[in-house]
Amino acid sequence: MNDIRCGQCGRKLASGRYLELLIKCPRCRAMNHLKAESLPSERPGAPRQGEGDGLQSYHPVAGWQATPG
Ligand SMILES: [Zn+2]
Fold first, then answer.
1. What does the radius of gyration of the chain's CA atoms come to, in whole angstroms?
2. What is the pLDDT of residue 24?
3. Is the pLDDT of residue 64 over 80?
4. Is residue 41 included in any domain, yes or no?
5. CA of 8 to the centre of ligand 1 (A)
6. Is residue 15 part of a domain?
7. pLDDT digits (tens, 9 = 90+) for 28-63
8. How far is the centre of ligand 1, averaged over its atoms, from the C-alpha of 17 (Å)?
9. Ligand 1 midpoint to CA 66 (Å)
10. Structural contact between residues 9 and 28, judged by C-beta atoms closer than 8 angstroms
11. In this structure, is residue 19 part of a structural domain?
12. What pLDDT is attached to residue 65?
């Protein structure tokens, strides 16, 4: 369970899990727009492996230009 707190005054607004949440703080009346930080499909800055090993694959295409008609 995650504590959802106001970004303005730090008051605890709710607890639980969310993907996206728009909640108004009853204390300071700031609107808190919250988004889940870690989505499984999106991982920015993830290191890539198996790239840039000096290997190049070149496929010559013969007869690529098709002539319709
Ligand atoms: Zn607040």
1. 25
2. 97
3. no
4. no
5. 5
6. yes
7. 999 999 988 765 665 567 666 665 566 566 666 666
8. 19
9. 66
10. yes
11. yes
12. 72
Q: Please indicate, yes or no, if residue 51 is contained in any of the structural domains.
A: no
Residues in the chain: 69
Give residues with Cβ within 8 angstroms of 6, minimum separation 6: 12, 13, 25, 27, 28, 30, 32
Do the beta carbons of residue 25 and residue 19 sit within 8 Å? Answer: no
Domain tally for the chain?
1
Domain that holds residue 21: 2-35
Per-residue pLDDT of 3-18, as tens digits, reads 999 999 999 999 998 8
pTM for this prediction: 0.50
CA separation for the pair 60, 69 (Å, rounded): 25
